[in-house]
Write a structure and sequence with these properties.
Layout lengths: L4 H12 L8 H15 L8 H7 L14 H20 L5 E4 L8 E4 L4 H4 L15 E2 L2 E2 L5 H11 L19 H7 L9 E5 L4 E6 L10 E2 L4 H6 L10 E6 L5 H16 L4 E5 L5 H4 L4 E4 L6 H6 L5 E6 L4 E6 L5 E2 L2 E2 L5 E15 L3 E10 L1 H13 L1 H13 L8 E11 L2 E14 L2
Parallel strand pairs: 5-9, 5-10, 10-16
Antiparallel strand pairs: 1-2, 3-4, 6-8, 7-8, 11-12, 12-13, 14-15, 15-16, 15-17, 17-18
Amino acid sequence: MGCSPEEKRSVLDRALHSRTLARSDQLRAFLQFVCEAEMRGRGADLTEYMIGVEVLGRPDGYSPAEDSSVRTRAYELRHKLEKLYSMELAHEPVQIVIPRGTYTPQYVRGASSAQEDAAPLSPQEQDPPAEARIDGHPRSRSIRPISVLCGALLGGVITFAVLKQVPSKPDVDPVVLEALGPLARQNANVLLCAATPLHLVLGPESHEAYGSPTYPAPPEAYPLFRQHRPLSPNSRLGMIFTDNVLGVGTMNAVVIAANTLRSVGASYQILPERVATLGALRGRNIMLFGAPVDSEAISRTLQDTPLTVDYEPSVKEFVIRDRASGRTIVPKKDVNGDFVDVYGLVTVNNTRDSERGRLGTVVFSGITSAGTHGAAEYFASPRSLHNLRSILAREGIRGFPAAYQVVVRCKFSSMLLLSYEYDSHRILQKE
C-alpha cells in the first residue's frame, strides 16, 4: 500500500526535526529537496548535477565527475537514515529510504532491506566506502587527535600531548585549499593552539591535585554535583584551580581543523596555549582556538582588528564588537535563559616573512565554545567558502583577501552547535 502525500509530508517532517539530523543543515536540506521533488512527481528527474547546484551551492556548469560532494553527502545521508530508523525512530511505521544508485527516495512501511537488496554496483558507482567525509573532504580514519582530546575530556580534564600528524593524499574541494592558503602546504607544520580557560573544578576533597590548594565548596554545589556524579552522603567537596579544561565546542573546533589539515596533506601539531609561548608562535603557521579573554595570543591577534569578542556590561554578555562602528552583535536566549543563538568569529591574517615566505594565521573564536565550534565548521565547509567567495566577488574582490574576518551565526542548544551560517564580514587587507 502506498503512502498519501500527507503521510509522506508527516514522515519527512519527523525526520527533519529528529536529533539524528539536528546537527547537519546540508543533510536535512538534501533530504528535504529530494523528498519534495518526489512528492511533486519529479523524483525521476533528480540528478547529481541538480542536487549539487540546488542543494550544495555548486556553481552552474560544475563537473560532478571532478566534484564528489553529492555522492559523499548521499552516502552520509543513507547512513544517517539507517541510524535514525534503527534507534531514534525505530518504531516509525513508514521510513524514508534512498536506495544506492539513485537519489529518488522511497517510503517503506516497516523495517526495510531495500538498500541491501539493491543490485550490486560497480566500484565507480558505489558511494565512498573507505571513509566518511565532511562537506566533500575526508574524515580521517586516524583517531589520534580525537582519542587524545575526547578521552581526556570524559575524564574531566583535557591533557594535551604534542601531536605531529603524517600527511595524507589531498582530496578536497579546491576552495578549501584556496581559503587555507599557506596552511595547506605539505610542509606547513601548522601549530594548532587551544586556549584553556581558568576553571574551578569540584571533586571529593580526598582527591589530590598535584599539591594544588583545595577550597571548600559552597552548599549549593552538592546537589549540582550529584545530578550526574556519585557522591557518598558523608563526602565533602573541594574546589581546585586548573587551566587544563577545554570546552566541548573548542575541542570540536580543534578536531575539525586537524581533520581538514590532514585531508589536504598538511602536517600539524596540537598544543595548549599554556605550554606554547608567544615566542613559539612567531614565524609559524598557526590556528588559534578560543576567546580573547582566555588567550593572550588571541587577544594580541585581535587587538587591532575591527571585530573582536568582548564583554559588554550593558547586556552582561560577551558580544561580537565592531570597534569601527560601535555596533555589537548580542547572543539570544530563550525564556529559560539558555543560549539559542551565539556567534563565531573567523579571523584570517596571511603575512609575508622574508625568510619563510608566506605565513598563515587563522583564529577561531566566538561567544561560548559553540561559537568557536561554528567558526571552525564554517571554515571547513566548501559550501560556506563558495558562498563567501561569491559575496566577496560581488564587492569586486577576486578570491580570498590576505586578511579578513567573518561573523558566523550559530544555532545552539544544550552545549551543542546545531547549525551555522554567514552573518557578515570585514576586509582587513587585500592581496
